[in-house]
Structure formats: C-alpha cells, structure tokens
Amino acid sequence: MRKLLSFISICFLSVNIYGQDAWWRMRENVTYELEGQFTGAIHANPFWLQANKHGMSSTKNINGFVSAGIFRDAEKVDSGYNWSISYGLQAAIAGNYSFFPIKLRQAYMDINYKTMRISIGSKERPMEMKNNRLSTGSQTFGINARPIFQARIELPHYWQPFRNLNWLAIKGHFGYGIMVDTWWQKNYLDNGKHYVSWPLYHSKAGYLRIGNEERFPLVFEGGLEWATTFGGKAHNVSDIPGYNYSIGYGPKQWLRAIYGGGSDKSDGNGYSNAAGNTLGSWLFSLSYKGKGWKVRGYYDHFFEDQSQLFLEYGWKDGLYGFEFTLPKNRFVKSIVYEYIYTKDQSGPVYHDHTAEIPDQISGIDNYYNHSSYQGWQYWGQPIGNPLYYTALYNDDGTLAIKGNRFTGHHIGIEGEPTKEIDYRVLYTHTKNYGRYDAPYTDPKYNNSLLCEINYKPEHLKIGKFNLDGWSAGIGIAYDHGKQIGNNTGVQITVKKTGWLYR
C-alpha cells in the first residue's frame, strides 16, 4: 500500500514539475452538459427505461431529474501532449428516486501521461467487448449502477508493449475505492436485515488483444475482470439481528482483496471462503472485419469467490453474444443477439470442508448475493448485468436478488436513418427459477421491449433560436410477465451541450 501511495505521489510531483502546461491547459476546452428527463408509467417503470443508465434511474412509475455538468476530455483536445488532464463534475436533482433528491452523478480527475493514467473519483465508464447501447450488460463491470468512488492506475487503451509486434496489445487497471451508500441502505432496509457500513472496494482488470484488423481481418480479445468488496463493519450478518462485528481496514484486508484470500467470521471455524464479496468474469471476443461490415462473437463467464474461476466445475453459466455491424445504410447499423444462462452456479450441492469431512464441494454460488455484504449492487442497482432484476421493484425493505437462476434471450437493433436521427430497439425474454435456497414454485417469465428515437438537429434555427447542441429523445417501453409485473411507460429526455470555455 505504501508503495502504491508513493507511486501516486511521484506521479503528482512529476505533473507539477514537468507538466505545468497541463495544469494551465486544464482551464481551456471545457464543455458543459444540461439534461432533463421525465418518465411516466402505468404500474412500475418498465425495465428498459431504468436499466443500464449508470444508476440515474428509478423503478417508480413517475420520476424525473434535471442535471448539469462540466467536462474536459483531454483525449480530444490534448492528443499532441505527453501530459494532460481530464475532469468532470456533474450533479442532479431527482424526483421520486429511491435515494436522496440531490445527487452527485460524476466527480473525477484523470491525470494522463502518454498511455498511462491515474484516475480519481466517481466516473461513468463504458463496458469492455460489448455494444454499450445494445447489450444487456457485462456481468461484473456493467453500466447499470452508479459509479463507485475510487483511485486507479490505468492503461485505458490498448498499448503495444513490443514495437515489432503490432498484433499484440494489452490494457487494464488496478484500483481501490469506497462504497458510500451506507446511510441509504440503513434507511431502506427493514430492521434486522444485514448490511456493511462503509465497505471498501477493490477492482482490477487485464485485457489482451491478438491481431490487427488493419492487416488481417481476424482479431481475438480476452480478459479477466475481478472485484472485491471488503472491510467495514457488518451489521445483522446473515439477517440475524444484533449479530454485528468489525471487519476492519488493515493492510491484510487490502492485500487479501487482491488475490481473494482470507475468510469471513460468518464462515465459521471449520472452513473458509474468500474474505469479503469476491467475484469476477472471464471475457473472450473473436471478430472478423470485412469490407464495410463486421461480425463478432463474445463470451462473458461470471464467477463468485473462486469456485468457477477455473475449470474445476465446468463453465456452464455465461453470457453468449453475437454482434453484426452492417455495411453503411439508412435502416440498420448494428444487430446484437445475446443468450444468458445462470442456472448452474457450481451445482445445487453445497458443502465446505471441515476437519471431519475433508471433501470440498463449493456449490450454490448465489450470484450477486452475500451473507454479510449486500451483494454485487450499489444504491439498490446491480453493478453488473441488470437482468439480475433489482430488488427495488419489490419495494419490500429488502435488497436480496430473488431471481438469480435464469435463462434469457435478448436482441438489440440500432440505426441512423439520417445524420440527425437515430433509433434503437431492445427486446428481452427471461425465464427465472428463483434461487437455490428460495426456488420459485413455477418459473417466472418476463418480456421487456424498448423503442427509442433521438433527434439532434444540425444548424437548425427557429426564429432567432439556434438549436446547435440540443437533442431530444423519446422512449416507449413495456414489460409483461410475473418477474417484475406488467408495466407500460414513456420517457422523454432533452439535452444541451456546448463549449463553456475554449
């Protein structure tokens, strides 16, 4: 930990000494963004009007927000410099959301040196190896929940470590953060439900690319995403009122979070799992680029603790996807199909070894849930894939994911009929079996549809009013089924962007 802090300090000192012009330039080329959104629905807010919006969403039938932000994107305006600084600050006032009316959407600063970056704060980040507009979402680092405050060292874009091997490239990150939804959890949950106050967060990822589509059409990508929630003070562990204990923030906890070591007190004396809530995904992608078109297949394999980290239990669970990018036309730009299967979870037999029984069978992984921590969610929204439907739809004072064993089919289509108009259509069908410890008597089906169209005029004036930088969108969605109910709604979004200072 001391070495990490020393490295960060050296980087800041280097920026001050050798990158003084970067500090000067950070006042220039600043943009602003104003956004307003209103949603009205019958019953609850439909799934695709609230999912994959970086936590800026509500399950309530009537909701809305207004937000304002300023941003500086150094990659666009400082590409010719070794040192550069990006930042963003975005706040919102929300109505009928589950959290406080005033919220900080983003607050971050990126210090860049060539291909390296130190990023500090809460920042909305895109998914890897998936279409961010059409996919259901990554199972570990998705775009569904609010961004977590963290400090991380990054290789944000693919970097070629060997000059003579332009077909080999790597990228990744390593960071620590803190989850700040403690007060909200305490107020939302019924008395006696478990939660951890002020837990820490560790995330890391590494990606490898083999191939160069400019020279050969076939490209392979693979990667590992791994996260751990650790530390803090556990309250009402395993929903046992009054069963509280301090987990702590010591150096051992920080170190164990890296490799998934240690154990929790709730594990007992006879066996141990990884300390905290440890999970991750293996990602694989294979693409082929033709003349004006492209096809790509990808696989996202999720694991809890270490039971499916390797091949011991077989990789039956996963998200399988195909993306087709069509030759340029006015009707369809891209098509995505995904199939997700989460029924196995290392099997239905759970047994951790003891002194009397040395055999180890690590089944019943119980995806996105945890006996001490609140599971893989933040402010009530799953951090990964939203098809692990948020418990906010139940509105019953609990946050456990009730249906994590499911199969799903999903299709997404987008297009740009004109330079000013784009659209997307999403349709998802799931069949949910509940959980191993709380199965449904009969599977619960759910169907969700979204039709969305956006308009961004160019060089259009209405009288003396210039519409440059303005955009408007409308989405109509519905749900049908017993998982989250029958819901119909409409969402209207208006946005204005422009230069604050050039």
Primary descriptors:
502 residues; mainly beta; 18-stranded antiparallel β-barrel; 3-stranded antiparallel β-sheet; 9% helix; globular
Write the layout of secondary structure elements.
Layout: H1 2-18, H2 20-25, E1 30-42, E2 62-72, H3 74-77, E3 83-95, E4 102-113, E5 116-122, E6 149-159, E7 168-178, H4 182-188, E8 195-197, E9 200-210, E10 218-230, E11 233-235, E12 245-246, H5 251-259, E13 277-289, E14 294-304, E15 318-325, E16 334-341, E17 377-378, E18 381-382, E19 406-415, E20 421-434, E21 439-455, E22 461-462, E23 465-466, E24 470-481, E25 487-501
Antiparallel strand pairs: 1-2, 1-25, 2-3, 3-4, 4-5, 5-6, 6-7, 7-9, 8-11, 9-10, 10-13, 11-12, 13-14, 14-15, 15-16, 16-19, 17-18, 19-20, 20-21, 21-24, 22-23, 24-25
Molecular structure report:
This protein has 5 helices and 25 strands. The protein has 502 residues and is mainly beta. A hairpin with a 2-residue loop joins strand 22 (461-462) and strand 23 (465-466). The longest helix has 17 residues, at 2-18. The chain is globular and about 80 Å long.
